[in-house]
């Protein structure tokens, strides 16, 4: 009985660790996606500015 409880606790701890690892990976992926979006927005903004400059010149 005790052995079963201990092994169950170990497996639940392992599951929690896995969940945390997955969460940290997901957070890293989200950060990367946000960085890519930020770069795209900067590029689009630069294109808009270039078009505006081209129109005024």
Automatic annotation (TrEMBL):
Protein keywords: Membrane, Transmembrane, Transmembrane helix
Residue ranges crossing the lipid bilayer per the database entry: 12-29, 36-54
UniProt keyword Membrane, yes or no: yes
Domain of life assignment: Eukaryota
Protein name: Uncharacterized protein
Organism, as annotated: Aphis craccivora (Cowpea aphid)
Classification of source organism: Eukaryota, Metazoa, Ecdysozoa, Arthropoda, Hexapoda
